[in-house]
Amino acid sequence: MSSATPLLDVWEAAKAQPYHPGVAKNSQFLVGFLLLLTAFFLTGFFGLNRSVVTLPVIGVPASLAFGFGSVYMICAVGVYV
């Protein structure tokens, strides 16, 4: 039973500090929508100007915005992944 004591201490310490997400539940739809809209425009711009220079400058932020925007939008409409 001595191995359960540290876990119990961690549990008790966590009760005093509740988790607060960086983006509130009420604003997840707006954040997801803005990220997806940004990804849409960046993807279109990247499609028109494909080069080695625009890949890290436009392509990577577009894919990150699409990924995070999709997750925020899925969570905002009530489908939990």
Automatic annotation (TrEMBL):
It is found in: Membrane. Keywords: Membrane, Transmembrane, Transmembrane helix. It holds the Pfam family Ost5. Signal peptide: none annotated. The chain crosses the membrane at residues 29-48, 55-80. It is a multi-pass membrane protein. Belongs to the OST5 family. Subunit of the oligosaccharyl transferase (OST) complex that catalyzes the initial transfer of a defined glycan (Glc(3)Man(9)GlcNAc(2) in eukaryotes) from the lipid carrier dolichol-pyrophosphate to an asparagine residue within an Asn-X-Ser/Thr consensus motif in nascent polypeptide chains, the first step in protein N-glycosylation. N-glycosylation occurs cotranslationally and the complex associates with the Sec61 complex at the channel-forming translocon complex that mediates protein translocation across the endoplasmic reticulum (ER). All subunits are required for a maximal enzyme activity. This is Dolichyl-diphosphooligosaccharide-protein glycosyltransferase subunit OST5.
